[in-house]
Design a protein that fits this description.
Elements: H1 2-23, H2 26-31, H3 38-58, H4 63-86, H5 91-113, H6 120-131, H7 142-158, H8 161-165
Helix pairs in contact: 1-3, 1-4, 3-5, 3-7, 4-5, 6-7
């Protein structure tokens, strides 16, 4: 049993690190013009992870998938909590911010389920809502972001459960 748990833990680490790597892609900041901020990176992680979860839930459901999704969710929010504490935020501030971020994640997850049904205007509004820290400073190219996530969503749909579980998600935009 320990070996099985360790394997799932290793898979969740690899998958989380891959999602984290996606959020750090310079494409988002240089070509699209998103702010290279902590908030935007978190939202990119949330969107990438949400599309994977939606993909997994559309396929044959299994306990392994649920557990690995939960591991990644837990790991993601443990890292966020740790990062905030390292920035010397106090318990009250961290707890308040975590509540907001978890709410944002679940909202993004919910909206990701219906992503295919959204027209470009609604997708634009969705990304504007989560990706723009200060609308007075930045004018990102959200049509490029929509195009990216259209391709990413399609890529996720075609992934096998095994590929996702092993963290073998080699998406190239």
């Amino acid at each position: 049993m320990f070996k099985f748990f360790k394997k799932k833990h290793d898979y969740s680490d690899k998958l989380y690190n891959k999602i984290l790597l996606f959020s750090r892609n310079k494409f988002f900041y240089k070509e699209i013009g998103l702010a290279d901020s902590y908030h935007v990176r978190l939202m990119l992680i949330f969107f990438h992870f949400s599309f994977l979860i939606v993909n997994l839930s559309d396929k044959k459901s299994s306990q392994d998938i649920k557990e690995i999704s939960q591991f990644i969710f837990d790991k993601m929010f443990q890292k966020i909590d740790q990062d905030m504490r390292e920035q010397t935020m106090g318990d009250v501030t961290v707890n308040k911010n975590m509540k907001i971020l978890i709410n944002n994640f679940y909202n993004i997850l919910h909206e990701s389920k219906g992503y295919l049904k959204l027209n470009d205007h609604k997708k634009n509004e969705l990304f504007k809502k989560y990706m723009i820290d200060n609308p007075n400073i930045q004018k990102p190219n959200l049509s490029q972001l929509i195009n990216y996530f259209n391709k990413y969503q399609s890529f996720c749909f075609d992934l096998s459960i095994n590929s996702v579980l092993k963290g073998e998600i080699n998406f190239k935009h």
